[in-house]
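Project outcomes to date are best conveyed with an example. Our students and postdoctoral researchers have been running inverse folding experiments weekly, and each run begins with a structure described purely in tokens. The record below, which covers 248 residues, was selected by the lab manager from last quarter's runs and is presented without edits.
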């Protein structure tokens, strides 16, 4: 058993485990069916991930294969940290070249996409997708159409959520087009978690890119949006605007 798993097991909290088991809908027929929680908070998981950023892909794979939710979360947080270390500016004689960093980032992204079946709850998606895949696709836009469209069309709920949450990286760079494109593709999705994710990203467009772009998109699409998606999207708008779109 790995050092990471041993450390996680020592921090097991039965009371918090029960709360998280209910919160993340692990019952039969629910979206998180069968997931097992140790009861460890995200801040504690982050601190553990920081200690083990050095572990290799084989060890990360073992964590992703683990039945405990927190093991998979730590694995993804380690991947995020590995990726972001390659993104951070480097100085001095030991600094790697941009080309070699790009190669390492590509390895992380391929590993991430190969393991989407283990990124199987909304927090695992939300704490990793835009930091890794989204950032990579923003910097390699020729791949965005192929990768995001494939994920958005997936039968796997979590791959569809990865598609829309990945566009957060574009939003941070003041670009809304991919958020609109993926939302269009997911407009008729039947799952509430996709409605919430699309609405959240649209809200972020209004907050971080340009409210006028959000309003323009809503003018064209609000009447065909699932109600939950619309409510999330208009959350930051003035009350008069919110009522307008809700009653349109």
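After processing, the design step wrote out the following sequence:
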């Amino acid at each position: 058993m790995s050092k990471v798993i041993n450390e996680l097991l020592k921090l097991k909290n039965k009371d918090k485990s029960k709360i998280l088991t209910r919160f993340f809908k692990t019952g039969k027929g629910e979206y998180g069916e069968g997931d097992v929680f140790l009861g460890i908070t995200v801040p504690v998981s982050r601190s553990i991930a920081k200690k083990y950023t050095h572990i290799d892909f084989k060890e990360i794979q073992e964590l992703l294969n683990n039945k405990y939710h927190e093991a998979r979360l730590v694995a993804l947080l380690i991947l995020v940290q590995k990726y972001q270390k390659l993104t951070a500016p480097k100085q001095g004689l030991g600094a790697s070249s941009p080309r070699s960093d790009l190669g390492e980032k590509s390895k992380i992204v391929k590993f991430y996409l190969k393991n989407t079946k283990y990124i199987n709850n909304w927090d695992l998606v939300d704490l990793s997708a835009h930091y890794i895949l989204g950032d990579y696709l923003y910097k390699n836009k020729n791949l965005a159409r192929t990768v995001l469209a494939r994920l958005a069309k997936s039968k796997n709920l979590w791959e569809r959520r990865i598609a829309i949450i990945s566009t957060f990286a574009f939003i941070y760079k003041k670009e809304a087009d991919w958020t609109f494109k993926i939302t269009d593709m997911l407009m008729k999705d039947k799952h509430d978690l996709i409605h919430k994710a699309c609405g959240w990203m649209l809200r972020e467009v209004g907050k971080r890119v340009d409210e006028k772009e959000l309003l323009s998109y809503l003018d064209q699409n609000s009447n065909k949006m699932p109600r939950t998606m619309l409510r999330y999207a208009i959350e930051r708008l003035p009350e008069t605007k919110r009522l307008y779109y809700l009653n349109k």
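The radius of gyration is 19 Å. Residues 69-87 form the longest helix (19 residues). The training component of this project remains on track.
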